[in-house]
Structure prediction request, 331 residues.
Amino acid sequence: MKSNEQVTVLKLPTPFPVGDVNCYLLQTAGENILIDSGPDTEEAWETLVRGLKQAGISPHEVTKLVLTHHHADHAGQAYRFNELGVPVYGHPRIRPYLEQEEAFLATGDEFLQRLAKSFGVPEEIRALLPSYSSALKWLGRGRLDHELHEGDAVTADGTYRVIELPGHASDQIGILGSSGILFAADHLLARVEPNPLLEQPQFEGDTQVKRPVLQYIESLKRLQGETVQIAYTGHGEPIRDVPTLIESRLLQRKARSTQMLKLIHPKISLFELAGIIYGKRLKKSFPLVMSEMKARLDYLVASGRIEVAKVDGVLRYTPLAEKGTADAIPE
Ligand SMILES: [Zn+2]
Prediction:
């Protein structure tokens, strides 16, 4: 880090099982760049204001707010900065989650129902699924002022740039400094493995949301090609040995999928398989479990270990005979 730069971590409470979220204040050459805003709760707002004050500024003195992805614990309070006239930056794919147009919420509900059906979730359980708008409870309705793409400068002097890291979310970005500081958000976490979460398509033929686990793996490999000295993460402590963590994340992904192989009998649905693996715990974190199961199955399909066919709207998975060419995908 250059000596005139200052990074302050702002740890905010969230209503989610993950616990606190880390926002960051990057102060450099007259700029006060806030990375993420926390969830939309009074408690998070008060904590954020207090943290900024300790760093010597008030919220309206933030020169830009950069959102790393659309999840409520990160983007929930962006609208407050809209109201203060602070420009809000993020990947273009974050826009519908901030703007929350009626049509997006309506297609979201249809998407959830269709998805659950394709997983083989019985009708009586599908009827209990939360609505799309209730999932956005802690994400205030706001506005994206400026779009950020791969390579775009985040600081005025261009020492920090955007690196697109889709997987955990399709709009996930990191911010990489020339000195090797990475704001990794939820792409890399020291203690937990981020789930590649399922999202509704944003347009006809949107391939970005099809198999998020494959994008997540690509984004991990992509980071292997960058020099990162320290990664500041969305939850928990920073990561100092990024290459080793990436290695273990790649191995974990592979292990989680292959361990499951022996449980896959011909034409099994995702829901049936989840029942075998999670049992009663399935109820507790249903949407997360669905995303995680889909990630494991997508991984196995992509590496040629199983095949998938849709029968009456339900995805059915069948093991394939072991071939020498297995594991074509992730290594
Ligand atoms: Zn997230």
